[in-house]
Amino acid sequence: MSVGFLLIHAKPHRTSAMLLSWALFVSGIAMYLYVAQQRHRDNPEERVTPTIAQMARGMYDAALKPAEDDEQAAEGGTMLQRFWNSMLWKDTKATARRFIYSMLLLIPAVLLGLHMGLFPYIGAFFLRFVLFFDKIIALSLLPILFIAFGIDELAKIMLIVIGVTPTIILDTFNLTRGVPNEQLVKAFTLGAGDFDAAYRVVLKQIMPRVLNSIRLNLKSVMLFLFAGEMIASTDGLAFRIALLRRHMGMDVIIPYVLWVALLLFLVDFGMRVLNRKLHPWFQES
Amino acid sequence: MALIEIDDISVAYGTPPKTVLDGVSLRIEEGEFVCVLGQTGCGKSTLLRLVLGSEKPLTGRILIDGVEHHQPDRTRGYVPQKYSLFPDKTVLDNITFGPEVSEFSFLGHFTPRFFRRRRELRGAAFDYLRRIGLRESDSRKYPDQLSGGMQQRVAIAQALMTKPRILLMDEAFSALDPGTRRGMQELIRELWKATGTTILFVTHNTQEALRLGTRVIVLAKESPERGSGVKLDLPVPDPCFEEEIPHLVQRLESGAGWQASISLHS
Predict the structure, then answer these.
(1) How far A277 CA sits from the closest chain B CA (Å)?
(2) Which phi-psi region, left, alpha or beta, contains residue A282 (left: φ > 0; alpha: ψ -120 to 50)?
(3) Which of B51, B97, B160 best tests the A interface by mutation, with the highest count of A CBs <10 A?
């Protein structure tokens, strides 16, 4: 008798595992379609659960029609040209710009964590403050940020910095402290100085784990970015979602949410591939 | 003047302080192969870390060629039991890391001189690879693709590549199976004879100490209150023939006050 399918030692067949992994998606979509159909049968003007056709039309308009405020953009042109002039692309570009700035600001955070972990005086100077800062709920600072930095880009970027950098600093700090002391001693006996030990030995060893940590924090970055955009912005994916909410534009909101999820999935996938290519020696346990 | 002078050192850890080493003095001449032997917790590795400069004694001092060193540097090579190689570097890059890092700054890595020197270093690294019994194809592997014995061979080559005057080995072969361990013992003896490097080798294995060393130092605890001191300083004939080993083991263990059974595994 083989092991039961609900037991720890169960070994699902490849096909069963694949089917199981898609089951919730399929049932979720099926359930949505059923509910949407029922509600549309009761009320043809129903807007809360748009049908697939309505969402496709909404997404078509968002992705292939010129943005409302872009008067110069012509309706015609190739599909690609129409996409470049569209509301979806304009919003994606605005959000991506802020996202890239935020990611760039994580580089100093990683370097600070590295130095805190390696140099005791730097660690003593920053650690308590970063630990305290880490406990502050970034969203609670939002009004202060808008008062202090205005409602421009800076406030949104600062929100992400306050929300995510302490976590990355502390993660990098802990990863640095986790490098065996033997490795540092070894580096010094081979002629390395402090700079070499920090950047050629420790940073290179912790880099794949730091990238993983950033990857796991992508959702937090997006959360703070969306909060900032929803409250004070004139463009961006979250701004559009907030704007469409006022008009009950679920036919565009749902595709937008899926588009954001797809983008985040692609960034995550890209970072994983990059990590594997850059660090072939790293075996994730 | 001795190459390594350990002068009345004491070390204590913890609160309240627990003495680990108490009044240890030693002189090690250039070219010696000294094995430090003792039971677990007697302070062998502490003694090695003091010579390495990664720890400071509570009292006393350690002179290397007449000078006190307060942190590890390239005068003393180091082969620990674990984490001896950089996991992010291939075998070849691990071996050439020392000369590269000590001869070139970060920006120096982008100069034509670096690439010329790198070719020379790689040639030397391949020589070492052959001497330690690894194939050229192993040079592209990462440490976790090698067996424990191969990793320690590479670690020895890595340490010797910078031509240190002293090589410090901390239970370097303890994690290896008996067959591999025997091969490593022969290798390190050969390399010691070829390079003339002074070796301080910490082990808890009596037979290994006698097979390798020209001198065996035994550390033993004086009492529960006092830390370890040098219990026995036994010169070993060079060459030391296998048939002499049981007799030496007996002498050593009776001198150190051990029960023979604790260290008769090879």
Answers:
(1) 13
(2) beta
(3) B97
| Residue contact A281–B88, C-beta within 8 A | yes
Contact B88 A205 (CB under 8 A): yes
Reported ipTM: 0.87
What are the DSSP calls for A146-163, one per residue?
HHHHTTSHHHHHHHHHHH
C-beta atoms of A191 and B102 within 8 A:
yes
pLDDT tens for each residue of B97-127: 999 999 988 888 889 999 999 999 999 999 9
B58 with B12: CB under 8 angstroms?
Answer: yes
Chain B's closest residue to A198, CA to CA, is B106
* CB within 8 Å: B84 and A182: yes
How is residue B132 annotated by DSSP? T
Minimum Cα–Cα distance from A197: chain B residue: B101
Dist CA B81 CA A16 (whole Å): 45
Tokens of B29: 């001449």
Which three-class secondary structure state does DSSP give residue B9?
A: strand
Q: A199: which DSSP letter?
A: I
How far apart, in whole angstroms, are the C-alpha atoms of residue B251 and residue B238? 17
Do A17 and A23 meet the contact criterion of CB atoms below 8 Å apart?
A: no
Distance CA B257, CA B254 (A): 5
Per DSSP, the three-state class of A278 is helix
The three-point CA angle A204-A207-A209 to 5° equals: 135
Report the gap between the CA of A281 and the closest CA in chain B (Å).
6
| Chain A hits for B159, Cβ within 8 Å | 189-190
User: Can the peptide bond before residue B239 be classed as cis, meaning omega within 30 degrees of 0?
Assistant: yes
**B25, B85, B188 from B165: Cα distances, Å:** 20, 20, 15
Q: Which residue has the tokens 């592209």?
A: B140
Nearest CA to B125 among B88, B98, B152, B107?
B98
Among the residue ranges A1-10, A140-149, B126-135, B161-170, the one predicted with the least confidence is: A1-10
Rg of chain B (C-alpha set): 19
- Please answer yes or no on whether B106 and A196 come within 8 Å at the CB atom: yes
* Structural domains of chain B ordered from first start: 1-75+164-266 (3.40.50.300), 86-163 (no CATH)
Residues of B contacting chain A (CB within 8 angstroms): 52, 54, 71-74, 76-78, 80, 82-84, 86-89, 97-99, 101-102, 106, 142-144, 158-159, 162, 164
The amino acid occupying position A170 is: L
Q: Chain A contacts of B144, Cβ < 8 Å? A: 281, 283
Neighbour-count burial of B164, counting CB atoms closer than 10 A to its CB (0-12 exposed, 13-18 middle, 19+ buried): buried
Name the pLDDT band for B265 (thresholds 50, 70, 90): very low
Of the candidates A185, A201, A283, which has its C-beta nearest B72's C-beta?
Answer: A185
pLDDT tens by residue, A225-234:
888 888 877 8
